[in-house]
Amino acid sequence: MKSLLIITSLLAITVDAFTATTGSKTFARRSVGVQASTLSSESSSSTYQAPLSEITKRRNLAIISHPDSGKTTMTEKLLLYGGALQQAGAVRHKAEQRATQSDFLAMEQERGISISSTVLNFDYQDYTIRLLDTPGHQDFSEDTYRALAATDQALMLMDAAKGLEPQTRKLFEVCQLRSIPLFTFVNKMDRPALSPYDIMDQIEQEFGLEPHPILWPIGDGDRFKGVLDRTTNTVHLYQKAEKRGAKAEATEVALDDEQLKDLIGDSELYDKLMEDAELLNEMIPPLDMERVMIGKQSPLFFGSAMTNFGVQLFLDHFCRMGTEPLGRETSKDILITPDYGEFTGFVFKTQANLDPKHRDRLAYVRIVSGKYEKGMKVNHSRSKRQYNLAQAQALFGSDRTSVDEAFPGDVIGINNPGSFAIGDTLYSGNSPIAFPGIPSFSPEKFAYIRAPNPSDYKSFKKGIDQLLAEGAVQALRQRNDENGPLLLAAVGQLQFEVVQARLLSEYKVDSKMEPLGYSLARWVDGGWEAVEKADKDGKLFGIMIVQDQWKRPVLLFRNDWKAASLAEEEKYLQLKPWSAPPAMDD
């Protein structure tokens, strides 16, 4: 099934639209239960073959959570233990603390939230790790879903005091439908927390996902002493670091060590630990990595990112348990494996002004197969044109380093002349390859935007064009009115605020917004002829008719009922709640 499902609610849109581009091929990226052609090392003799040693050492991980679960803090601590930082930042930092590496936009640092997905790279032991830190706020969930398209596994962070929360539920559902392996980390155990058993029950009952405890907590709140590593029966007792943001010191002791009770210093917690250890061994099925890989079982960890308890242990286990880069299925049901001899990759994010001094534009490319080499030529599947990748960059938040080569699983930044859009495929060789596109979801907020000062128009237009290319908001206009007022469309109000803030900070331009009273959009696959017929028949009363940046018809509705009613009664319109860049010969 290659078409997207028509979805009538935001939750359904954000879940189904994300998975429906592959439809029944959800498991194909792992070659599970799918009859598909495969392109691997035997299919090409290109010099762009990636060495097996480079493939097997790579791990990538998207970090996802409900807002305020400690996601950015967890990211910083993983960087700290990975040796990428000397001292971790804090989201709500004091004067003496450094700013976080993953939240580098000014608005992120001011508000203490992530509003854009970030790529962070570091080496740890014998592995090369790619972290994708994603926004937690629901207004930026679309950016999170794009990051999930680029990852092979995800870390779901939960607040120990709150358990499963609304955004957590949405993201769990997306990961399960995409068969993305999930690692679960229950954070903030240094605060009063729910029972670990209650948290396990929530995960299992609501998602049918079997949690398998790897790190088990010893106490919570002020009595949080450390964790039991059930894989080694070793207890790790922590001491808070003297300097905030530094690594925590830990004492390791065997579970059956006679000194353990005295080291814990709390007989009640000791007795509870011994009881829990015995109970878990009796009731928890063995860890089955095959079930983890298809999203049926989740390794479960407890700890505290703020105090560093359990963070390095998680990193150690993730490197051992996590999967190396996986293949990806094309739009023609061909599975491209990492050892395929040609370079293939896809754009999952674009970003303007990573370097404000140069007003640059960057496309984030996830490499699926083959090897990137400096100066190589690649084909652009949508335009059928060839581009010279003269320079690529490894990404670390807003910092960049030029690289001469990169391998499957890596995310590289390439200069974007304005030709690359989210979902585009790049490939070497003579065999055309196109991966399924990454859709944009139905917006729910609409507002006209303008520059109140006419002298600012040139800077205003440049800023708007570059920010629109990032895909955080969409641009709509009246039909055939290129010079008319620009209508912005977004999933949430905060996206509008970000656009205005970035116009002011990055382009020195004031802007004014005029909200409209519409609540959702539908793209008309039937084309303008279908729209004209429905309009002539009086079927579009109270509905606003506009066009997107590719001049395709879009209808704006004031409520779900009207949209569903029109879709049912006028099927020739072929209403869709999503959009993707068209092929350039469309």
Automatic annotation (TrEMBL):
<dbReference type="InterPro" id="IPR035647">
    <property type="entry name" value="EFG_III/V"/>
</dbReference>
<dbReference type="InterPro" id="IPR031157">
    <property type="entry name" value="G_TR_CS"/>
</dbReference>
<feature type="domain" description="Tr-type G">
    <location>
        <begin position="56"/>
        <end position="326"/>
    </location>
</feature>
<dbReference type="Pfam" id="PF16658">
    <property type="entry name" value="RF3_C"/>
</dbReference>
<dbReference type="InterPro" id="IPR032090">
    <property type="entry name" value="RF3_C"/>
</dbReference>
<feature type="signal peptide">
    <location>
        <begin position="1"/>
        <end position="17"/>
    </location>
</feature>
<dbReference type="InterPro" id="IPR005225">
    <property type="entry name" value="Small_GTP-bd"/>
</dbReference>
<dbReference type="InterPro" id="IPR004548">
    <property type="entry name" value="PrfC"/>
</dbReference>
<dbReference type="InterPro" id="IPR038467">
    <property type="entry name" value="RF3_dom_3_sf"/>
</dbReference>
<dbReference type="InterPro" id="IPR053905">
    <property type="entry name" value="EF-G-like_DII"/>
</dbReference>
<dbReference type="GO" id="GO:0005829">
    <property type="term" value="C:cytosol"/>
</dbReference>
<dbReference type="Pfam" id="PF22042">
    <property type="entry name" value="EF-G_D2"/>
</dbReference>
<protein>
    <submittedName>
        <fullName>Peptide chain release factor 3</fullName>
    </submittedName>
</protein>
<keyword id="KW-0648">Protein biosynthesis</keyword>
<keyword id="KW-0963">Cytoplasm</keyword>
<dbReference type="InterPro" id="IPR000795">
    <property type="entry name" value="T_Tr_GTP-bd_dom"/>
</dbReference>
<comment type="similarity">
    <text>Belongs to the TRAFAC class translation factor GTPase superfamily. Classic translation factor GTPase family. PrfC subfamily.</text>
</comment>
<keyword id="KW-0547">Nucleotide-binding</keyword>
<dbReference type="GO" id="GO:0005525">
    <property type="term" value="F:GTP binding"/>
</dbReference>
<keyword id="KW-0732">Signal</keyword>
<dbReference type="InterPro" id="IPR027417">
    <property type="entry name" value="P-loop_NTPase"/>
</dbReference>
<dbReference type="GO" id="GO:0003924">
    <property type="term" value="F:GTPase activity"/>
</dbReference>
<dbReference type="Pfam" id="PF00009">
    <property type="entry name" value="GTP_EFTU"/>
</dbReference>
<dbReference type="GO" id="GO:0016150">
    <property type="term" value="F:translation release factor activity, codon nonspecific"/>
</dbReference>
<keyword id="KW-0342">GTP-binding</keyword>
<dbReference type="GO" id="GO:0009507">
    <property type="term" value="C:chloroplast"/>
</dbReference>
<dbReference type="InterPro" id="IPR009000">
    <property type="entry name" value="Transl_B-barrel_sf"/>
</dbReference>
